[in-house]
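[job 0412] stage=complex_fold ligand=2-acetamido-2-deoxy-beta-D-glucopyranose status=START
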Amino acid sequence: MKVSNSFVALSALSLAAGGLAASNSSSISALLSNGYVQLDGASSDAYDKAKAFVATLNNTEKITIITGGSLTGDHAWTALNTKDGVSGINYQFYVSGFTMANALTMSWNRDLIKSQFKAVGDEFYKMGYNLIDGPEPGPLGRVPYGGRTPETFSVDPYLSGIAMGEAISGMNSAGVIAGGRHFLLNEQETNRSSGTSDTTSAVYSSNAGDKTIQELYAWPFADGVKAGMMAVMCAMTRVNDTLSCEHNNLLSGVLKKNMGFPGLVFPDVNSQSTSYGSANAGLDFGSSSLWTDTILEAGIANGSFTQDRLDDMAVRNVLGYYYVGLDDGKQPDLAGTTEYRDVRGNHGKLIRKVAGESLVLLKNSNVSGLGLPLNKPRTISLFGAHAGPCMAGPNQAFSVQGTTSDVYQGHLASGTGSGQLSLPYLMTPFQSITSRAIEDNSMIWWLMNDTYTSTTDGFGGGGGMGGGFGGNSSGPPGISKRAVNLGSLGQGTALTPSFANYAENSVVCLVFLNSYSGEGGDRSELSDDDQDTMVTTVAANCNNTIVVVNTAGPRVLDAWVENDNVTAVLYSGLLGQESGRAIADVLYGDVNPSGKLTHTIAKNASDYPNPICTTADCDFSEGVFIDYRYFDDQNVSVRYPFGHGLSYTTFDYGDVTVSVKNKTALASTYPTGEVVPGGQADLWDEVLSVKTTIRNTGDLKGAEVAQLYVSFPEEAAQPTRILRGFQKVTISPGSKATVKFSLRRRDISYWDAKAQKWAIASGDYEFTTGSSSRDLRGSAKLTI
Ligand SMILES: *[C@@H]1O[C@H](CO)[C@@H](O)[C@H](O)[C@H]1NC(C)=O
Ligand SMILES: *[C@@H]1O[C@H](CO)[C@@H](O)[C@H](O)[C@H]1NC(C)=O
Ligand SMILES: *[C@@H]1O[C@H](CO)[C@@H](O)[C@H](O)[C@H]1NC(C)=O
Ligand SMILES: *[C@@H]1O[C@H](CO)[C@@H](O)[C@H](O)[C@H]1NC(C)=O
Ligand SMILES: *[C@@H]1O[C@H](CO)[C@@H](O)[C@H](O)[C@H]1NC(C)=O
Ligand SMILES: *[C@@H]1O[C@H](CO)[C@@H](O)[C@H](O)[C@H]1NC(C)=O
Ligand SMILES: *[C@@H]1O[C@H](CO)[C@@H](O)[C@H](O)[C@H]1NC(C)=O
Ligand SMILES: *[C@@H]1O[C@H](CO)[C@@H](O)[C@H](O)[C@H]1NC(C)=O
Ligand SMILES: *[C@@H]1O[C@H](CO)[C@@H](O)[C@H](O)[C@H]1NC(C)=O
Ligand SMILES: *[C@@H]1O[C@H](CO)[C@@H](O)[C@H](O)[C@H]1NC(C)=O
Ligand SMILES: *[C@@H]1O[C@H](CO)[C@@H](O)[C@H](O)[C@H]1NC(C)=O
Ligand SMILES: *[C@@H]1O[C@H](CO)[C@@H](O)[C@H](O)[C@H]1NC(C)=O
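[job 0412] stage=complex_fold status=DONE, emitting structure tokens
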């Protein structure tokens, strides 16, 4: 699939992906001005103000605004100050390092997602930034090795979309403009630029068909537009061989026309290469050297560009300003990156709560005394560099252009690159578990890396005399090894340092693993031999081995996860500044785990469908079949399915009922509404509702994320079943809760590429509730 889209002048601006009111002006400059996109309430007021302001400006002033400049005097305007950061401000002193979005989404908690993005937005606002580079529904996660996964929500477009909507609402409510990125098909870092620095744009082209674009990659952006997103960053990627930022069909068709996006499109680094090509395709904010007065006026004079489009660009640049209320003049001035400002409030508390809810309990023993939660263990060993602080930190000055390792030798709480957190401090598991040991009168050993010996690295200090016969498995005759190591005179509490020896002497063995990545570099492995050997060595000697994993993206666990001595596994993304405390909260049962996987954990890395693409053309030939959609379709057995996650209590599911909410709506194959921000208005109307009940059958209060999966008639060409609803409910022991999933028209539609519209297929639908995508508990059928 290789399509050449040449840059076109205005006369050729017909929109292939339109399909809507085609008789109306096909000029993209008119989508707002002729009312094609129906604004209402706040967006309509903001549009009126934007139009009135732009009407006072001459072209020089308009060009100043769209190229990032400020105006003074009668037409005062503060430049858009863009700044990176999805889970906290990138490179800024005195701000919070929030839970990374890949972990946050594992909470499946809408309120927490919104609260966190509001808090992140507050810090941006108070530091004087008005346009945030984020939130980030792209990359979606096509490639499990994708370096930017920590910054993004989930490989499932529905879940990612719900998170995106909450994120936009949260950031907007803080009074800053959120810029959803990266639009579109920016699914890997490898070959994103031709050199070792980002001086050129992507060397590869992502090629995908309309169905794939609409149903997967663009889907969560529509949720953002619906929620009031007023800025979108186009990606470094080429799509069908045209730069995303100069792609008419993507920017003007999919984004502005199909989704009714009223705001500004701004480019990622080096993603704009032409003056008229970019502006005519739909880029609204860009380079002051490509968009000079001279160039743009010449274009207007000879028809390569138009006055209408320039006006439209200016309006789109200022619309968000009014929409989020920045025109009230109250935002503090832009802070220097090391300037002290008190912006954090009590965000640390929120971060601890979010991180605790984001941990997923993958496995837990049901044998009394083993597994989690911990109950005042007498002896604990902590293993792995991820248990404690690195030699220097918090975290390191990671490189944007690639990383050199997949394992960080210290506690990892952030991704790298432009999404890297500015951690003000970092609570590690070492600190938090030590605090618990103080309360419980536990004894703790730690061994971060077994390359230490008793004669190097100052080993032997602190805990006692060290060395001796500790760890000698023969030991003095008649005295068991345990007694020797724990009791002999002259030993202090020192053990000869080996994973095996520490493990053998501990009631609980906590092993900590991480995997890291970030912007500019994809991961080179989905599991790590050294780390896995550490787990198997510990488990061979400790019948209560508990593994904690914090990972950039999917982490394969099969080297040890079936070992009976591995009695519990806690798993999440990267948790931010309160990481250690949140992990201890769950380990000790102060927080009952309620997270669920937002991707599938395969048995083997080679089971995942899409490796990193290294050719010039990256064809998304798998279409909509990624992650669980692929595994289900191909009937591949997996280690832990998408949506999986245990609790310290248990839940039973009741019967499922489905009811039609709007018969008239279902009678029409295509939506009939006006285009509003988000797309045709009726795509967002509730058409069906599904109900079930959930009972807490255990002894503890806990929360369950109930999931709804829908199976479609053949005509819709969908995977076996796809996520189309979830509800997180907290239930007391013995109590029952009713769960309702509301299905919008878009949730039961598929993209009809021929009609270029969302369509409802006729036939049999199945609505299945589950505790994961493969732990299905009940279903109901409906024929439409
Ligand atoms: C174009 O859209 C506007 C606003 O919705 C409408 O008033 C006008 O009638 C439309 N024109 C055509 C030719 O459909
Ligand atoms: C545009 O307006 C600015 C500010 O009022 C003024 O300095 C400038 O001369 C004007 N430019 C043109 C081309 O009229
Ligand atoms: C890319 O090309 C495919 C195949 O021709 C086409 O279906 C799709 O619409 C194109 N994508 C975009 C964004 O133009
Ligand atoms: C219009 O003018 C610009 C700037 O001089 C030039 O690059 C472009 O080729 C011209 N286009 C046409 C159609 O004459
Ligand atoms: C514990 O789990 C095992 C394996 O899933 C199961 O066979 C056994 O019945 C469970 N025992 C109890 C007491 O729940
Ligand atoms: C272990 O202890 C026994 C008995 O004291 C001794 O013979 C042996 O050399 C020791 N082994 C090591 C590896 O230190
Ligand atoms: C121990 O440290 C070395 C050097 O940094 C590293 O190569 C090795 O992977 C580490 N071991 C584990 C289990 O992480
Ligand atoms: C489990 O740990 C015990 C020590 O507690 C050890 O004897 C046993 O071999 C281990 N089992 C496995 C499967 O590693
Ligand atoms: C686990 O190992 C410890 C110490 O080796 C032993 O006391 C305990 O009985 C074992 N527990 C189980 C359930 O095997
Ligand atoms: C994983 O897959 C690779 C490639 O197919 C294979 O060589 C390897 O043996 C597999 N690993 C396991 C543990 O099955
Ligand atoms: C993509 O990157 C790989 C690995 O760096 C390299 O071997 C390959 O040549 C690159 N592909 C292109 C099209 O430049
Ligand atoms: C039902 O759907 C139709 C068509 O989308 C719409 O006009 C009507 O307002 C809806 N009714 C209700 C009660 O939502």
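The pocket of 2-acetamido-2-deoxy-beta-D-glucopyranose (ligand 12) is lined by residues 662, 664-665, 672, 682, 685 (CB under 6 Å).
[job 0412] exit 0
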